[in-house]
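Section 3.1: Structural characterization of target chains.
Under the original work plan, the team committed to producing a structural model for every single-chain target entering the pipeline before any wet-lab resources were allocated. The record below documents one such target. The sequence was received from the expression subgroup and is listed exactly as submitted; it comprises 463 residues.
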Amino acid sequence: MATYDYDLFVIGGGSGGVRAGRLAGAMGKRVGLAEEYRMGGTCVIRGCVPKKLFVYASQFQEHFDAAAGYGWTVGKSTFDWPTLIANKDREIARLEGLYRKGLENSDVEIFESRAMLIDDHTIEILKTGKRVTADQILIAVGGHPSPHPSLPGNEFCISSNEAFHLDTLPKAIVIEGGGYIAVEFANIFHGLGVDTTLVYRGKEILSRFDQDLRHMLHAAMAEKGIHVRCTEIITRVERQDDGRKLVHLSGGDAIVADQVMLAIGRVPNTTSLGLEAAGVAVDETGAIKVDGYSRTSRENIWAVGDVTNRVQLTPVAIHEAMCFLETAFKNNPTKPDHALIATAVFSQPEIGTVGLTEQDAARTFKAVEVYRAVFRPMRNTLSGSTEKMLMKLIVDADSRKVVGAHILGPDAGEMAQLLAIPMKAGCTKEDFDRTMAVHPTAAEELVTMYKPTYRIVDGARID
């Protein structure tokens, strides 16, 4: 029987890799983990966490403006970008320390280096050239923003990575993309006082979200003053003598901006990883191919998280890591469950969504009931804000199960997380109807919409 240096070697110190390494170590397994940058991966270091801190920062001006309707007099306010950056960096360093401490407490040997596969059981630590062996190998190296190599002048652009470390806050920015990263940063920069233009090739932003959410958010962003330009792309970026960028659009216009941010998708980090030498197959996008249990084409090599390009969300990577441990070390084969994943877009107003869109539900079921309410939330009644809130439930008319829930408005992400529980449990619309409302709240609409707004039967809407 072959002997190895480690029972498990993890390549990548993001949320999925750290969770798998830490818990495997706590089980008494001999674990090694290689991470070339910082523990925490995209989410903690250059993704969800710093982004949410930026979202909070960008919301204060609206809070100050709303306060007057409630009797508060708020004096002149100013914003200091370096202070936000410094405080953000301090929090990220704290979180990274906690990730590292968790690994150390589980006796995981940490290699601060990039690692690559030599064969299906051998890993080279590139910083030192040392080679180690492992019985099981987990690849959890995540992905990175697409640099858009075909765009002339892409070298003058930034991605979400650099947006967290800008020396100065730009006066004007152009963001290309229509997904949640592009939309969130458009709202962030606008909220911080930046003249913001969002350029997207599609007909409407947030292509995989419910149509009502997409249209209402677009309208709200435009009302705030964000320039949303759909059905256009950036064709060329030029750097001017003063350092600003001249951004040429497919419609013929050119915009001058201090920064140009590309948010057009993410690419798996599989280059120079040694996958071919180890016999690990990838797809046409470079993502590692895995089966339902996260096993690659090599029986002892596994992959979780964004490097597999399944669902690019931090909690999903963690869930996949937990299922991997059950399968590989606990003799309990467990497939990750990717159904009914709650998702939030931290735009302004915020989006929270679970399950099928109206359009997908209409294609899936013979008959669908749509329960829809649009109203001004109570917090806006005295502030003078005309911003509306959307609550929407999608119900399979035959089984009566709630198969989709979509919210636009304050705390939508929090509500989506809670809605995911009854929906995962298979609750019906009647279960929602039997639930007492908490009054006065916005969320009470979810249990007081007793009659469908309209039905969709065989793809045809019936009002």
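The mean pLDDT is 96.
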